[in-house]
Specification:
disordered N terminus, three-stranded mixed beta sheet, elongated, Alpha/beta knot
Length: 313
């Protein structure tokens, strides 16, 4: 009972803290959590979307993603916050196959985030910085062995070109041997202003790039994919949906699975009785306090049954 009561108090404190972090008083508080954003006097606008001169005029369908959408107001947040881009997060992704990312960012929640000017996503084809006119960005590995390796020169030139335009809090390489992506990590990254993501391909990238440019390596699981584009899309989605104003109900993200090392409770919708399978009566009671209590107990029970390790973290 003590543990249960303590967790409920923690839920309340956590919700209040997030309101403060994402509310009008967020400037100093967010800085305390590691955010580089601030709310300067007079709310001056920062220049964004500065043009970048690429070494080669490469054209892909992904250009539609890089275009800045028309400005729209974000519901439920004061106009001065949105107009001054106080909540805007920019993510630059370097990829050998940018077309793989086109669909991921053009629909649903991430599309909404971009339309509200809360999230900017720019996908840069690595072949823009290829070492020759044939668009070469990979080569055989020293010592022999199967698989091609992404070369130093194109990656280094791409990273340095983007860094001339802005400072990045993190330069992330999506790799199966990186830190395992989790909710606290996504929460922390959502409070940054500029992120760069490198999508690997082939056998991997030259180790010297990892040693001298990459600040963080992230994995989405203990398995191998054909490239880093899908992991980059997963990371971007996990971060983008947390930005204030992106979800229609701003409290929705607070009660996702893993936010407090608990799985989300079961959810139900109409009809209340389907084939004799009925919705729990408490959810139909209209009593917010009892419903919150039921949901917490259901989350705790579900976590104990399916992911007991979360409770010991």
């Amino acid at each position: 009972m003590y543990f249960s009561g303590l967790c409920r108090v923690y839920f309340l404190i956590y919700s209040i803290c997030l309101w403060v972090v994402f509310g009008k008083a967020s400037g100093s508080v967010r800085e305390g959590f590691g955010s580089s954003r601030s709310l300067p006097e007079g709310f001056p606008k920062k220049p964004r979307n500065q043009s970048m001169e690429n070494p080669k005029p490469y054209r892909t369908n992904i250009e539609g993603i890089s275009k800045k959408p028309e400005k729209k107001s974000a519901k439920a947040y004061p106009g001065f916050l949105i107009q001054n881009k106080f909540f805007t997060l920019r993510i630059d992704i370097i990829s050998v196959l940018p077309e793989l990312l086109e669909s991921s960012f053009s629909h649903s929640i991430l599309k909404r985030a971009r339309e509200k000017n809360l999230l900017e996503i720019f996908v840069h084809p690595l072949r823009n910085w290829a070492v020759n006119e044939y668009g070469q960005v990979d080569d055989y590995q020293y010592g022999g062995g199967a698989g091609m390796v992404m070369m130093c020169e194109p990656l280094a030139n791409a990273i340095e070109s983007l860094k001339k335009e802005r400072d990045y809090e993190e330069i992330i390489f999506m790799s199966p041997d990186g830190e395992l992506l989790n909710q606290p990590m996504a929460n922390a990254l959502s409070m940054k202003e500029n992120l760069m993501i490198i999508s690997g391909h082939y056998k991997g990238i030259d180790e010297r790039i990892r040693e001298h440019y990459i600040t963080r390596e992230i994995s989405i699981g203990d398995y191998v994919l054909s490239g880093g584009e899908l992991p980059a899309a997963v990371l971007t989605d996990a971060i983008g949906r947390l930005l204030p104003g992106v979800l229609n109900d701003e409290t929705s993200a607070l009660f996702d699975s893993f936010q407090d090392n608990l799985l989300a409770p079961p959810v139900y919708t109409r009809p209340a009785d389907f084939k004799g399978w009925k919705v729990p009566e408490i959810l139909l009671s209209g009593d917010p306090a009892k419903i919150a209590e039921w949901r917490y107990e259901a989350s705790l029970r579900k976590t104990k049954e399916k992911r007991p390790g979360l409770l010991s973290d």
